[in-house]
Amino acid sequence: VVPTVTLKSGEKIPVIGLGTWLSKPGEVAQALKIALKNGYRHIDCAHAYMNQDEIGQVLEEVIAQGTVKREELFITSKIWNTFHSYEKTKEAVDIILQQLKLKYVDLLLIHWPMGFQEGGEIFPRTADGNHMHYSDADYLDTWKALEEAVQAGKVKTIGLSNFNSQQIQRVIDHSHIQPAMLQIESHPYFQQTKLINFCKEKGIEVTAYSPLGNMATPFRKEGQANLLEDPVILEIAKHHNKSPAQVIIHWSIQRGVIVIPKSTSEHRLKENFDVFDFELSKDEMAKMAGIDRNWRILDLTARDGDHPHFPFNIEF
Ligand code: A2P
């Protein structure tokens, strides 16, 4: 049984979840079935990953079969940028429930603080193709619609993703239901300790995406080192007779950050879950802290950096 963390809402979230970003339709169902068979209960989804229909089919199937009970699952999804107005957010909540074939999701996040032009494509581009077509929708309106989704029983817990500390504070200051979760990029080369400490002080739990450094993302810049080959991590892995990925996943959990490693391979899905039979020493935790390089992989500055709600223009 995987340890859980209790959120502000009272809900319990398993500390490891299955990441589904970049899991192709056609692959994600298989990965999800393997993950569920091997004990995963927390699944991280999003409207924008364009594979929720397939995930929903598996969820419906396993719940109907009785192999997994709905209440044992922890399903996260995210409101996409083209649904930020109050009205559109309400629509998005229903679309997400329909795709996932669920009556409620456990956690619903605002995927990004930036709003994009509503009503059409997921990635509406400007005429020159270089930027996203922005909307001036304010994420406080998105938040209000999410609070009402909680009241309506469609969502258990609400939170944020890719928000900076000032934006989080602004939501806190204008909310009836406070955010319970922040999901951000975090791994040993981009530890985000200041933002994580800020969240912990506010009682907000943190989930790390791209916890293994996401070698597969198209946003990765050339020349960025592979986290899974880092000499410090390799040494610690050897000492515990574990793989580098297992050391990274355990390190994250040990520092109090929930992780959602993505895999579609049976071998690696099992590997990423087999991380509860060792502990890192104080000295090893210090060594891990020392390899931070402040390297953001999902760097959208070139594309969205001039958006009024772009989150990454300040220190944290
Ligand atoms: P695959 O799906 O073929 O397993 P992140 O979670 O940081 O986004 O990283 C996901 C990437 O890392 C995917 O390309 C995934 O490939 C790969 N990956 C997942 N688990 C492991 C592992 N235990 N060892 C090596 N690579 C892994």
Automatic annotation (TrEMBL):
Superkingdom field: Eukaryota
GO MF: oxidoreductase activity
Coiled coil start-end: none
Feature type site, description Lowers pKa of active site Tyr: 78
Annotated catalytic residues: 49
Domain NADP-dependent oxidoreductase: 16-292
PROSITE patterns for this protein: ALDOKETO_REDUCTASE_1, ALDOKETO_REDUCTASE_2, ALDOKETO_REDUCTASE_3
Entries under Pfam families matching the protein: Aldo_ket_red (PF00248)
InterPro entries according to UniProt: AKR, Aldo/ket_reductase_CS, NAD(P)_OxRdtase_dom_sf, NADP_OxRdtase_dom
Residues holding substrate: 111
Keywords recorded for this protein, A-Z: NADP, Oxidoreductase
Family of the protein in this entry: Belongs to the aldo/keto reductase family.
The name this protein goes by in its record: NADP-dependent oxidoreductase domain-containing protein
Organism: Plectus sambesii
